[in-house]
Write a structure and sequence with these properties.
This protein is an alpha+beta fold and about 425 residues long. It folds into 2 domains: about 5-85 and about 170-245 and about 350-415, FAD/NAD(P)-binding domain (3-Layer(bba) Sandwich); about 90-165 and about 250-345, 2-Layer Sandwich (D-Amino Acid Oxidase, Chain A, domain 2), CATH 3.30.9. The protein is about 25% helix and about 25% strand. The protein is globular, with a radius of gyration of 21 Å.
Length: about 425
């Protein structure tokens, strides 16, 4: 009789812990391995934790819409207590401001199919709804050292607004919640341990090797290692057929005292492609601002995801906060940078890879940083569908798994997240994907 399958999940971030819980619910023994001292202490903890549905593809919209319903019922979804408490979802609404070349109708057709409420706001409607936001159109985004940054254009913009977007207040706690639920269901964890080898036999994966020489046997290995995912894939020797690759990128997020009109009511969360930023309220009357990777900014690609400055830097702080101040004229910008830096795991088209590989038993959930935190409640179920299908002999490459979203009823073709895809031409090639 064949032994029951056992899995190792490499990475205890919000994605890895979600996969561990989903595999335990399929009756698969699970060991979670991470270099950190506990769950959610890597790139997850630096997430802005925004929940929005504004994606360029149907799959992107459908998965995010499904995940929102899970965040709203988070303790019920987890099904297990956590002594640290539960992360909370705040509904603020999500506003995407107009950008030349961006056609809201492409997104709206996905919203219409899924029944997601939205409004298209012209400049007058935008001013009436959100009087604390400037409707001046500045596109293209510029750096503050560009003289044209300080010009006052006479153009205005509108936006695309959906009332059901928002944010999760504590991304690290959300990962801990998933880890706690996985642990309660029987998963075990090995922390402060680095994976140094992927073991393989004639039939495929046989487990992993750790830096201390310990071997962990498994017939399933899932790479959910975030910014270290490329290194784990190198160990596995699986990259030959990947048409989409991942790379680590340093990102800064800054926190300021927000004007009451924005912070007191928690909203709205804003994607401002016109100025190249996104921002949201945060508990404690704060405003959080990050980058949408505009063309005028140099991206912080890293050769080594462990070698980076964890502190905010004055040049990046100035770029992001002065852009924010153009959109929120009542904002006061302190001279001293406040916030943090983290590392993204980014694919060529900013769309993640949730897939099998050419090594039987070795799976990947990678390239998730920047825009996939929101999907953490359902990534595990999607990966479990691919894994369980593969165990049953299904070739996801030629016969893609279609995942039925349990709360919203949509069906998602998971080949959208294939490693074999050409970089998606519909992607915005930014964190908005």
């Amino acid at each position: 009789m064949a032994s029951a399958p056992a899995a190792v999940v490499v990475g205890a971030g919000v994605v890895g812990c979600g996969i561990a819980l989903a595999l335990r619910r399929e009756g698969i023994a699970v060991t979670i391995v991470d270099r950190a001292a506990g769950p959610g202490q890597g790139s997850t903890s630096a997430s802005s934790a925004i929940v929005r549905f504004h994606y360029s593809t149907f799959a992107g919209v459908a998965v995010a819409w499904e995940a929102k319903h899970h965040w709203e019922r988070w303790p019920e979804v987890l099904g297990a207590a956590d002594g640290s408490g539960f992360a909370r979802y705040f509904t603020t609404g999500f506003l995407v401001l107009d950008t030349p070349g961006h056609d809201h109708s492409r997104v709206a057709r996905h919203y219409d199919l899924l029944g997601i409420p939205y409004e298209v706001l012209d400049p007058a409607a935008l001013r009436a709804r959100f009087p604390h936001l400037s409707t001046t159109a500045y596109f293209p985004p510029r750096a503050p050292d560009d003289d044209e940054f300080w010009l006052e254009p006479d153009r205005e913009l509108g936006g695309f607004y959906t009332p059901e977007g928002g944010f999760v207040d504590d991304p690290g706690l959300a990962a801990h919640n998933l880890w706690s639920a996985a642990t309660a269901s029987g998963a075990r964890s090995i922390f402060r341990s680095e994976v140094t080898g992927i073991r393989r036999g004639a039939a495929g994966v046989t487990g992993i090797t750790l830096a201390d020489g310990q071997a962990v046997d498994a017939t399933i290995v899932v790479n959910a290692a975030g910014p270290h995912s490329a290194a784990i894939n190198e160990l596995a020797g699986v990259l030959d057929d990947f048409a989409v690759r991942t790379a680590p990128m340093r990102q800064e997020v800054h926190t300021l005292d927000g004007p009451p009109a924005l912070t007191g009511g928690f909203g709205p969360t804003v994607g401002d492609g016109d100025l190249g930023t996104y921002f949201r309220s945060a508990p404690g009357d704060k405003l959080l601002v990050g980058s949408l990777e505009p063309a005028c900014d140099r991206l912080g690609w890293l050769a080594d995801p462990d070698e980076y400055d964890v502190h905010p830097t004055p040049p990046v702080y100035e770029r992001q906060t002065l852009r924010l101040a153009r959109r929120v004229p009542s904002l006061a910008v302190p001279n001293r940078p406040t916030g943090h830096a983290g590392v993204y795991d980014v694919t060529d088209d900013w769309i993640p890879i949730y897939d099998k590989t050419n090594l039987p038993g070795y799976f990947v959930a990678i390239g998730t940083s920047g825009n996939q935190f929101k999907n953490a409640p359902v990534i595990g179920a999607m990966m479990a569908a691919v894994i369980v299908g593969s165990l049953a002999g299904r070739d996801h490459d030629t016969d893609p798994v279609h995942w039925p979203a349990p709360m919203t009823g949509s069906v998602v073709d998971l080949s959208h997240y294939s490693r074999l895809r050409a970089p998606n031409s519909d992607s915005s090639n930014t964190v908005l994907a």
